Amino acid sequence: MPKATAIVNARVFDGTRLRDWTSVRFADGTITDCATGPTAHDGDEVIDAEGGTILPGLIDSHIHLVPGALAQGLTFGVTTALDMFSPPDVMAVAKEQAGARPDVADVRSAGIGATAPGGHPSAMYAPFPTLTGPEQAEQFVADRVAEGSDFVKIFGPSGTAGPWAMPSLNPATIAALTEAAHRRGLVVVAHVNSLAGLREVVSAGVDVIAHVPVDGELDRSLAERIAEAGIAVGPTLATTENVLGEPGGAAVAADPRLAGMLGDAQMRRLTSGASAQHGRKTPPYSRAEENVGRLVDAGVAILAGTDAPNPGTVFGASLHRELELLGRCGMTPAQALNAATAAPARVFNLADRGQVAPGQRADLVLVSGDPLTDITATRAVERIWRAGVPCDRRAFVANAAEAQELDAFDARVARVVAAVRERRYGFGQSKAD
Ligand SMILES: [Zn+2]
């Protein structure tokens, strides 16, 4: 086993821009050199990139953990996944695996998210801790920290009034949770499903918005307010398009660069047309891209996240779809790549990753072609290293236990959808989160 690896004859995207480097060397899991000339030392393993492009390992900034998620994500170049809520036992097992095994992506997790009794998504798990007022915020955050949560997820106000509205946290409780998290140095992520909810969580001073509302036009003044506050937005278009009836999963399955790494069960998952809103009147998906476009125009930091394994998505492959969709919102390929590398690392305080630079973790993806010209070139993955360890890339096939857990997740999503329908609630909460 060589002590170090040098990738030569490469182009290098450093997380923000294309550099003039042609070579990257790493040893003991850490990048040691990036240079325009040769970096290989005597005895190094030398890999000829043949003009391919080195990217930082990808970060999926919005998943929900099920067993197998981290292994599957890594096979598509996702070296770090951010879990936007899972039960504490699921989080604990995933973290233990990520710490012990090189063949799974690393993970950070919110653990359980904050919501009101009976609110979204408390129908998913029992028992589900909830809050009834701001005086409970400090204890809620303390409990999550004790369970191992790395950041705090808040389910924002529903934005729907009247007898059919789902119960949701009031503004005072959201503000108290945000303050309690910030006192502990924790990043706060807020789920929103409406423009009204978005305005409320922006006022509360959260750090990250999950999803983009489609119940109206996100106006320029609100986009500028978000930009000025330094709040990042992860729109999760890869799930949104399926929820709003577009065949996004089928588009993933139709690309042989992605399909070649997916087993039959995963292909069925993508092509089953499992739109949660089938047959219902929903806003057009195009509004989601228009609203993200306004955020991009205003200079808001965008984070690439899939919301996998929601209907029509699979771990890893769907992140490449998300990058394509972000491009449709007006992001340049470099901006889209930044949204899956350096941007989430900065927002979530992951200082050791997200960039190709000396001293960074050797989380690297080598793709053939030029994703800075054609963003879908990220799908032509040649090699993946996770903290310097090469990924043995082969199609992920869930074992029986993993398949069972994924089925259970789907059943929980169905329960949430049923709970929402029972209240004749709007489209936005039919996703798992
Ligand atoms: Zn989610």
TrEMBL record:
GO MF annotations, alphabetized: hydrolase activity, acting on carbon-nitrogen (but not peptide) bonds
InterPro entries: Amidohydro-rel (IPR006680), Metal-dep_hydrolase_composite (IPR011059), Metal_Hydrolase (IPR032466), Metallo-dep_Hydrolase (IPR051781)
Top-level taxon of origin: Bacteria
Coiled-coil regions listed in the entry: none
Name this polypeptide is given: Imidazolonepropionase
Stretches assigned to the Amidohydrolase-related domain: 53-377
UniProt xrefs under Gene3D superfamilies: Amidohydrolase, Urease, subunit C, domain 1
